[in-house]
Amino acid sequence: VQLQASGGGLVQAGGSLRLSCAASGFTFDDYAIGWFRQAPGKEREGVSCISSSGGSTYYADSVKGRFTISSDNAKNTVYLQMNSLKPEDTAVYYCAATIDSPNLTWGWGQWWGYDYWGQGTQVTVSS
Q1: In whole angstroms, what is the distance from residue 16 CA to residue 11 CA?
Q2: First to last CA, the chain
Q3: Cα separation of 56 and 49, whole Å?
Q4: What is the pLDDT of residues 27-49, one digit of tens each?
Q5: Which of 26, 61, 72, 75 is deepest in the core (most CB within 10 A)?
């Protein structure tokens, strides 16, 4: 099982980045994919999640209207388009996979519910 997160980097405030999460080694169509982030000294927080079908998406209030999650099931890849970036978005971003279920609606942001994790990609937003 492998989740490979990429696309992080250094960007000025107001700029954009697109993160990718390439999955392999499990049945991608059965899993929801979430993005989480962790800044130094802070807890890991849920950023966004997309259901296995791509039909449902979830966002943290802090990123609504700025970030967009999407998936390409043919490529087993999930994307996180991040626009209007702010310095407070600076963190290591992780993608993770969890079996899709009705619980996703209220539990998508609970990192302990995810089975597989990628290695993380650093996003740094300068002011």
Answers
A1: 7
A2: 37
A3: 8
A4: 999 999 999 999 999 999 999 99
A5: 26
Contact assessment for residue 3 and residue 22, using Cβ atoms and an 8 Å cutoff: yes
CA distances 80 to 18, 32, 41, Å, are 6, 14, 24
Counts for the chain of helices (H) and strands (E), in that order? 1, 11
Tally of CB atoms within 10 A around 89: 22
User: Which residues does 115 contact at the CB level (< 8 Å), separation at least 6?
Assistant: 31, 96, 97, 98, 99
Question: How far is Cα 13 from Cα 83, in angstroms, rounded to an integer?
Answer: 10
Given pLDDT bands bounded at 50, 70 and 90, which one contains residue 81? very high
Write phi, then psi, for 45 (nearest 5 degrees). Answer: -130, 145
